[in-house]
Amino acid sequence: MSNIKNFFSLVKFAHTLFAMPFAMIGFFEGVQVLGVPFPWRILLLVVLCMVFARNSAMGFNRYLDRKYDAQNPRTSGRDIPVERVSPQAALGFVVVNCILFCVTSFFINKLTFYLSPVALLVVLGYSYTKRFTALCHFVLGLGLAIAPTGAYIAVTGSFTALPLLYSTIVLLWSGGFDILYALPDEDFDKSVRLKSIPTLLGRKRAMALSWDVHFITALIVVYIGFSHHWLYWIGAVIFTFLLNYQHIIVKPDNLSKLNAAFFTTNSIASICYAFFVIADLY
C-alpha cells in the first residue's frame, strides 16, 4: 500500500525551483502591465496550477519509466521500483493532479482554461520522447517554459512578446542543463535504445552543445535587460555566471559534481534571477 508521504517523494521539490521563480516573473510582469490592485487570488491559483502540473509531469514520468528505472543502477531506488508506490497508485496520483490542474485553471480565466489541456499534453508527452528523439531535453524545457507565459496569461488573459522571451530562456536553459544531467546514463540509454544528446553525440560533444545552448540563453537574458533597470542586471549577472559555473565544475572525465550543478546551481540561478527581475519592476 502507498501512503501519502510516498506520493510526494515522487516529486522532487528542487525541480519545482527551476520553473516556479519564472512563473512569478510572468505573474508580476502581468500585474505591472495591467496596473491593477495585487491579485492575491490569481497568485494562489497560479501556484496551485504549478504544483498540480509538476505533480502530474513527474508522477507520469516515474510511472512510464518504471521498468527502465528498475534496470538502471542510478534510479533503481526510486519509489515504484522498490514498491513504496505501486504503478496503479502513481497513475491515480497523476490523474487526480491533472483534474485539479484543469479545474484550478477554470477559476483563473477562459484562455488559461482552454490552454490547460495543451499544457498537460506537453508536460506529460515529454515522458515518451526519449523513446524516439534525442531532442527530448528540449521537450522537457518546453514543459517548464510554459510557466512564465502561463502565469502572465493568468493575470492578463492575453499574450505578448516579453513573457515568451522568458519562456525561451527557460526552454534553452533547462534543455541545456538536462543534457548534462543525462551524461551518467549514456551507456545505460544506449543499452536499452533510449535517445538523448549524449547517446547521439558522445559526452564531450554533448557538453559542448549544452554550453552553446546556455550561451544563447545568456544572450537573451542580456537582450531583455535593455528594457529594464539596474536591479535587473544584478540578477542577469548572477544567472549568467551560474550558467557558466556548472560547465566549469562538470568535466567530461569527472561527473562527481553533477548533482551540485544540476540541483543547487540551477535552483540558485533561477531564484536570484527572478528576485532581481521582480525587484526591478517595483
What does this structure look like?
The chain has 282 residues and is an all-alpha fold. The protein has a single domain, classed as Tetracycline Repressor, domain 2 (Orthogonal Bundle). It is 78% helix and 0% strand. It contains 13 helices and no strands. Helix 3 packs antiparallel against helix 5 and helix 7 packs antiparallel against helix 8. The model has no long low-confidence stretch (mean pLDDT 92).
Secondary structure layout:
Layout: H1 4-9, H2 13-34, H3 40-64, H4 66-71, H5 87-106, H6 110-129, H7 136-156, H8 161-181, H9 186-191, H10 197-201, H11 203-225, H12 230-249, H13 258-281
The CATH homologous superfamily is termed UbiA prenyltransferase
The CATH architecture name reads Orthogonal Bundle
User: Residue ranges: pLDDT <50 for 5 or more in a row?
Assistant: none
Spell out the helices and strands N to C. Answer: HHHHHHHHHHHHH
Q: What would the CATH topology be?
A: Tetracycline Repressor, domain 2
Distance between the termini: 49 Å
Shape: globular
Radius of gyration: 19 Å
Structural class: mainly alpha
The domain tally reads 1
Question: What is the tally of beta strands?
Answer: 0
Question: Per DSSP, what share of the residues sits in E-state strands of 2 or more residues?
Answer: under 5%
